[in-house]
Amino acid sequence: MPKLTLSLLLVILLAVVGIGGALDNFFKQYQTQPNKESDELSAYFQIGTSLAATLDKHPNPQLFIANWQQDSNLSVSLIELTDFFLPDSLKETFYAGEPLTFESESSLSIHFIVPSREQVLIFSMPPIVIEEHNNTLQLMLTILFYLGILSVVLIWLSPLIKQLRQLRQTTKAFGEGQLQQRINVKSASYIASIEEEFNRMAERIESLISDNKLLSDAVAHDLRTPLARLRFGIETLQETENPATREKYQHRLSRDIDEMERLVNVLLNYARIEQTMMAAKRQNININELISQCVGAITNTDKVIHWQPQLDVNINGDANYLSMLINNLLGNAVQYAERDIALEIVQNGTKTQLLVSDDGPGIAKEKRAELMKPFMRGEQAHEKPGYGMGLAIVVKIAQLHDATFAIGDAKVLGGAEFCVTFNTES
């Protein structure tokens, strides 16, 4: 939105300054053309100057004016110089013979000095009415100015309208169930931030719906087996009277109930991760200390864990969920490693990578994306305990920490390598 506001202000400013300046320059050039009013007055200046020179030498100026005025449409009068008030700034030029022109709404008067007689000759006439082409020109230029502003704004609005139309169409398609719909965000877009937020929202909604579907399928599949065993065990328990047999079936029933409880807890924990992370208070966590705590908590394994803390690196996040992420990666490595597990922190600019690798069988490239989904297990996992939620939880926690998760091949140990990349705050 800041880009939209700034670009609009810039466009309007440039349009006003550019178009206004161009039209103003044109009008000034038009104004420099010869002034018709000055041309007409110049004739009166010549007549007045000549008449004042004649009166200056005539023995009876008033009689001369009376006779001269009979043959002219001008109103001519002669007054004493002492009766003609002038500001000091005009006296010098007037006394030097320069005519003075005074104009009001009702009359126009031109004054000439008759120096030797110390009198002032006055020509009085109605205002010279000149056909004003300037008003029409000003109106045309004003219309052109506003049309220019309107055109520039419409040109600016054109891509915005196109982007908003695309956003509306994509939103409509998304609302109709086409959850894969995304907006192609361009760097020059006025609403790039809105489009990016829409894409993030769409990805989150698609992920949630996909997770809900997987959870529903998992509940339907994984709960059905222990429920069937419970039903069978209860029916068998009702039919047997042998104490040893009854105790065996009671033990099986208890085991199936524990299994159902564990599965329900896994489902609830996965469903609550996002909600609790949004409400969690994030802080700077020393990732090396956290890894050391998680490694130190693993005691019931014969695997060798190689971990050497590096320089202090802080990650902004929630310590509990970061511990869960590390423990899930460690647990997965312990489960599939032959002997060795390695943890490493790598810094690259503003990126911090957590690498967990093992010497196990590794993960085929075509299976990696699938194993990041809930309840998805590899071929070797069917012989191992678990529900296929470990990596899915890692992915969810990484996303909520603005981090990325990837599966690769361990270069040194030869098994799988799990990489979580965080944006490290400076």
Give a verbal description of the structure.
With 426 residues, the chain is of the alpha+beta class. Helix content is 57%, strand content 16%. The protein has twelve helices and eleven strands. The strands form three sheets. Strands 6-8-9-11-10 form a five-stranded mixed β-sheet. Strand 2 (100-103) and strand 3 form a beta hairpin. The two termini are 27 Å apart. 18% of the residues are buried. The mean pLDDT is 78.
What is the gist of this entry?
With 426 residues, the chain is an alpha+beta fold. Helices cover 57% and strands 16% of the residues.
Order of helices and strands: HHHEHEEEHHHHEHEEHEEHHEE
Beta content comes to 15-25%
Structural class: alpha+beta
Give the number of DSSP strands.
11
- Helix count, DSSP H or I runs of 4 or more residues: 12
For the biggest sheet, the summary is: 5 strands, mixed
Q: Tell me the span between the first and last alpha carbons.
A: 27 Å
Helix content: 55-70%
Mean pLDDT: 78
Using only CA atoms, what is the Rg? 48 Å
The low-confidence parts are none
Shape: rod-shaped
Provide the spatial order of strands within the biggest beta sheet.
6-8-9-11-10
